[in-house]
Amino acid sequence: MNQAEVLLPTDQPDLADDGAVTVQTEKYLLFLSDELLFGVPAESVAEIITGHAITKLPLVPGYIRGIINLRGQIIPIVDIRRLLNHGDCQSDCMMILRSDDTQVGILVDQVQKMVDIDVSTLLPIPPQSSNDLVCGMCSLEDGQTMLAFDCARLMDHS
Amino acid sequence: MSAGSDSILDAFLYETNTLLEQLDSIVLAAEQQDSFSEDDINTIFRIMHTIKGSSAMMEYNSLMTIAHRAEDLFAIIRDKTMDVVPEELRPELFDLLFQTIDFFRQELEHIENEQPLTEDIDTLLQKVNRLIDQIHSGGQAQPAPAQGGAASAPAAQASSTTATRDGFPYVLQVFFDEGCGMENLRAYMLVSSVKDLCAESDFTYEPQGVDSDPATADQIVESGFLLFFRNQADRDAAIHAVTASGSVRSYQAIDQPAPEPRPAPEPAPAPAAKQAAPAAPAPAPESAPAKAPAQNAPDKKPAPQKAEATHHHKESLISVNLDKLDHLAAVVGEIVITESMVTASPELKGLKLDAFTKSARQLRKLTDELQDVSMSLRMVPVSGTFQKMNRIVRDMCKKLGKQARLVLEGEDTEVDKTIVDSIGDPIMHIVRNSMDHGIEETAQQRIDAGKDPVGEIVLSARHTGSEVIIEIKDDGQGVNYDAVLNKAIRNGLAQPDVEYSHKDILNFLMAPGFSTNTEVTEYSGRGVGMDVVKKNVEEVGGTVIITSEPGQGMTTTLKIPLTMAIMDGMEVSVGGSIFTIPIHNIRQSFKISDSDLVRDAAGGEMFKCMGSFYPVIRMKDLYQMDSGVTRIEDGILIWVDAGEHSYCLFVDELLGEQQVVVKPLPSYLNRFNIKASGISGCTILGDGNISIILDVSNLCTYAQ
Is there a single domain that holds both residue B411 and residue B557? Predict the structure, then answer.
């Protein structure tokens, strides 16, 4: 899946010219995992793939489903459902996330769509529901609530 | 435009660096002999000449000037053999050459980093000039020395006013494009390319000095650039070179009836004039003139041959950008996978396609070959890195007044290019440490200890399955454990009241900020040595192990995983997973029945083979796999060993032997300590599936 068009600059200069308040937006990709709607910054998504055979690795925690061969690159696959104790993920849809030079794939139920999120509407999560992989939440135009997926946390999750 | 000049610059840097490396090794070898062989002198002369020419092209004047003088120096030595340099001047000559090499290296570094070149080259230049003078004055004592290289140019010019040349009847007159500029350098380039075609003694050119004297440009514009050849065949070959080079407006071949060689300006015998090359008109009126041609003839002959040999050798090597190789490897990987996707397509099932199957098999064979080739491209021998250490040992011997030699083993061990690059600095640090701290201060100390007065440092490389092992071993005094421990305590690295094992103490050596030498020396002892080594090696996923025997020396071992190494492996399956066992670890495999197994008190299984009992490790149980064979009759037992471990692995099935590329597991997984559980990496099989490579010795440790 080509993400090039997604990475186009997001600020709209004409708004600034009109003297209106500049709205800082960021593109997020929405996906479903166990009925929860997550959003992940589009720039950290490298690729969305389906149908890759996962090679199991022995003696790793259950949420590490294994490794895949993505055009010669070996990429570890994390089942975030298992990581969040939400059961097993049945789908074979993987989202390859990258940060710096590490790439990690996550298993998701369904990839939905791209949305523009006004950065200022992104709220911190309430402390009592401190969830491991969520770094914020925000309400979307259609009334749904998006949980911002914490890529960095996933990358150095132990 | 900038891309074009960049690539010229790249080529210049690459070529000059290669030449300097060659020069370095020649001078090192020559220093051992305390003399240069004929071949060496010719090669050095040629190298200096090439550096001079290419520096002039790139307009690096300081480089050109130094190379020019060094070339002059060797022109003298070449013409009058090594005997012209008196014994006492030789160390100076070698030192000077090393200084020159270092100067070139430093300048190249400046060029690479786009820093300005060193303008002040007078010191080095003076040294070269002084040496030339000294050689000259040393030579004065001998009967009638020729005027040397400097004299050759005027002499040649004097005889060339007639625009003909004795003994060179075949002339080629070349005119360059009008207004193309730098005619003299263009002519010089032409001369260089003609040199590749025929021996230097078989042609000459007019005007002389095109490489250094810009004024010759006008003369070339006026009357053309003249090349004189001894043989017609050479000239015909040269015409091709002339047409191939740019900016040539026209050329004309002029034949002259071969005149009898006129007596040379100097009263030399006729045969000598014919044999001596025009560049070296030094047939001095020696007391025994008959000897001169006899000496010259064999001297001249090997040179052109050698030139041709090295020339061809060079042609077979090209340098390629690493990115391109990475890209190639990735594309080839995809081709292999796509190939199996096509040929094993489910849509073909049940169809009888004889021709298709045949072609598919052919394709398979070719893609396999392609994969092998592309894998081997990134592998380079470690010899380059190793050779550089010769120089370090030599320099430090001089500086520290110690005697030591470097022995290289397994230089042709091939490792991935990135690893070669990353081990250079660590090896250098360790060799320096060995020279500085390891080898005893004086030869007497070594003799008293019953050792060879000349210290020895052995640098060796070898492959073991998934790792390259680089060992740096010296036969010096070894580590003084008490001194190291005291130092560690002083530095706060160790607790005074704790008992440390020797191994612990050696580990202090690699702690940051540790240096046992109280004096800071130029080479080591800044306390940043070993911890930097450790850090660098760990960066490429390797480990450093130090062992030492007091009085016997110290051994530093670098174990570095082969990121792209190719390995022969045995594919086995357990449950649904495929594992690769390095083939060199496998001793034998058995099909056995339950009654062959012996059980010990703790319930462990053992198998008796060749008179010994070996523990049996069931892969399925060890790795807690969901499925797999449990009945011993259904699976297969593989007897493996690695170092001190020898045991049997029980797996479901042997799938066959295969060459595999070792890939490291993603660093993301390092936190699960996957290496300790006996997995060293993984590999991509021909069908795109992943196989996990087992580390036989770690697997055994884990099982215990």
Answer: yes
Q: What is the pLDDT of residue A83?
A: 81
Query: Within an 8 Å CB–CB cutoff, is residue B671 touching chain A?
Result: yes
Q: Which of A60, A68, A69 sits opposite B669 (nearest CB)?
A: A60
Same-domain pairing of B649 and B603: yes
Q: What pLDDT digit, counting tens, does each position of A31-54 carry? A: 988 888 889 988 889 889 988 888
Quote the CA–CA distance of B298 and B293 in Å, as a whole number. 9
Residue B345, chain A, CB below 8 Å: the answer is: no
pLDDT value of position B522: 47
Q: How far apart are CA B202 and CA B220, in angstroms?
A: 22
Rounded to 5 degrees, φ, ψ at B86 are -65, 155
Query: In which residue ranges of chain B is pLDDT below 70?
Result: 1-7, 138-167, 169, 176-183, 196-200, 210-215, 217, 221-222, 237, 239-315, 337, 465-466, 513, 515-529, 539, 541, 562-567, 643, 686
CB spacing of A64 vs B684 below 8 angstroms:
no
Q: Which of A71, A74, A155 sits opposite B682 (nearest CB)?
A: A74
How confident is residue A19, by pLDDT bands cut at 50, 70 and 90?
very low
Q: Name every chain B residue with its beta carbon within 8 A of the beta carbon of A69.
A: 684, 688-690
Asked if residue B576 and residue B674 are part of one domain, the reply reads: yes
pLDDT digit string, tens, across residues B667-690: 888 778 777 788 888 888 767 788
Same domain, B666 and B589: yes
Tell me whether residues A64 and B672 touch, CB distance under 8 A.
yes
Chain A closest-CA separation from residue B375 CA (Å): 13
Residue B542 shares a structural domain with residue B575: no
In this prediction, residues A104-121 reach a mean pLDDT of: 87
Domain containing B449: what range?
380-561
| Domain spans in chain A, listed from the N-terminal domain onward | 25-155
ipTM above 0.90, yes or no: no
- Parallel/antiparallel/unpaired status of strands A93-99 and A45-50: antiparallel
Report which of A29, A35, A45 is spatially closest to residue A84, judged by C-alpha positions: A35
Half-sphere exposure of A124 (CA within 13 A, CB side): 4
pLDDT, residue B322, reads: 77
* Three-state secondary-structure class, residue B291: helix
CB B668 to CB A76 under 8 A? Answer: yes
Token pair belonging to A32: 């479903």
CB distance from B334 to chain A under 8 Å?
yes
Chain A residue whose CA is closest to B335: A71
Task: Read off the DSSP letter of residue B502.
Answer: H
- Total tally of structural domains belonging to chain B: 5
CATH topology of domain A25-155: OB fold (Dihydrolipoamide Acetyltransferase, E2P) (2.40.50)
- Based on the fold, state whether residues B450 and B553 are members of the same structural domain: yes
Determine, for residues B625 and A60 on separate chains, whether the beta-carbon distance falls below 8 Å: no
Q: Which pLDDT tens digit goes with each residue over A132-155?
A: 778 888 888 888 888 888 888 887
Burial class (CB in 10 A: 0-12, 13-18, 19+), A122: middle
Which residues of chain B neighbour A154 with C-beta distances below 8 Å? none
Q: Which residues of B touch A74 (CB under 8 A)?
A: 663-666, 682, 684, 690
Looking at residue B301, its pLDDT comes to 41
| B67 touches B52 (CB < 8 A) | yes
The answer to whether residue B432 sits within a structural domain is yes
Q: Indicate the pLDDT class of residue A76, thresholds 50, 70 and 90.
A: very high
Amino acid identity, residue B66?
A: I
Q: How far is A2 from chain B (nearest CA, A)?
A: 19
Containing B682, the helix (H) or strand (E) segment is strand B679-684
Give a yes or no: residue B548 inside a domain: yes
Q: B677: nearest CA in chain A?
A: A59
Helices (H), B434-576: 443-448, 481-490, 502-508, 529-539
Asked if B588 contacts B702 with a C-beta cutoff of 8 angstroms, the reply is no
Say yes or no: B549 and B405 in one domain.
Answer: yes
Note whether A113 contacts B: Cβ–Cβ < 8 A. Answer: no
